[in-house]
């Protein structure tokens, strides 16, 4: 009877082991054949689809010879600068407020091209001020009197709509959040998490480090974040840091704003002049201000960067690469500026839309309140304008977990259903059970033989 029970146990064990082998092989095959699940991400979009506010649509429709930009007034109304009465009537018909100006966007572009062709002077910057219908040229404290005089002559040759301003402080990149990330190049801030569908990355400033820079979350170099794998600086100011484990982990669609709090990021767009915006950085934390100009050019000591967002939000060294956003919409990553958060200053941001398009990646967004994918914020279509600047907020609040994925232990990697690990564990366990059952049977047979042999020889 005892031998019969043993045979039944051995038979069940062998059948279970064989079944486990088949199941594990199926799991491995499925994991290899199927693509890993990509995080929720905003689809690729055109410039028209990501343009912020109805003013941008009106400017695009009326053309650069009849308009000179748009902005959000203090009461939330959309204002469009126009150069003729017919364009003004069309703006009124769309529900926005027209403002008659003398100089068009074409005049602005011609002026900035002339400034760009002049001898480069580090410490200078220029941007289009839509509200005053002027091009503003700024020079920091490092610009000599002779260089400033020569640049003033260039401006005078352009016309009376170029305004010259001297600025205190120095225009520098903010190297040295969002969360802090560190490498031998210095300290920066993580911006937004993005994906190409197969791998996840941190979008940050391009001046933070060249390709191959290795980033850590701690000063001892023990918690590796990832490696810079591409970007552009100068010219632009963006780069990608590929996560060491390939994935951004839980909370990838959230940016940190301090005290363990974060903001859900639900979409991406270009900002509007006059819009209230928020910036988070590892040095100065969460700060807010207003977009003062678009398409700004800054002559940093390292080189010239164009197409930037200008704002009066303060920033300090170490804030570079940190995210700028409003109402949960990603807008830019911190490039540089002048001043600090004690005296104020001017800060410039790389537009996120431009960086995503050129890098071929998509923004990872936070799940909705019900746990499902967050729908990208629709492009504004109401020409009466957006919320008044004072009414704007950073976005929906949520706890933040940090920029690193879950600990990359062997167990967590094997347990990840996106990997072949679970299938391999089942196969390994089945093989152990099969080998063990065979060994036990062989050992029992040897014992039976010894007992029989011993009895037969008395």
From TrEMBL:
- The residue ranges of the Peptidase S1 domain are 199-356
Q: Does the keyword Hydrolase apply?
A: yes
Locate the region Disordered.
Answer: 370-404
The source's domain of life comes to Bacteria
Report the SUPFAM superfamilies cross-referenced here.
Trypsin-like serine proteases
Which CDD domains did the record assign?
A: alphaLP-like
Which InterPro entries does the entry mention?
Pept_S1_alpha_lytic, Pept_S1A_streptogrisin, Peptidase_S1_PA, Peptidase_S1_PA_chymotrypsin, Trypsin_dom, TRYPSIN_HIS, TRYPSIN_SER
- The signal peptide annotation in the UniProt record is 1-31
> What are the record keywords, sorted?
Disulfide bond, Hydrolase, Membrane, Protease, Serine protease, Signal, Transmembrane, Transmembrane helix, Zymogen
Q: Which Pfam families match?
A: Pro_Al_protease, Trypsin
- Which intervals carry biased composition (Low complexity)? 370-397
Q: Where is the Peptidase S1A alpha-lytic prodomain domain?
A: 103-157
* Transmembrane spans: 420-440
Family indicated by similarity: Belongs to the peptidase S1 family.
What name does this protein carry? S1 family peptidase
Q: Which organism is it from?
A: Streptomyces atrovirens
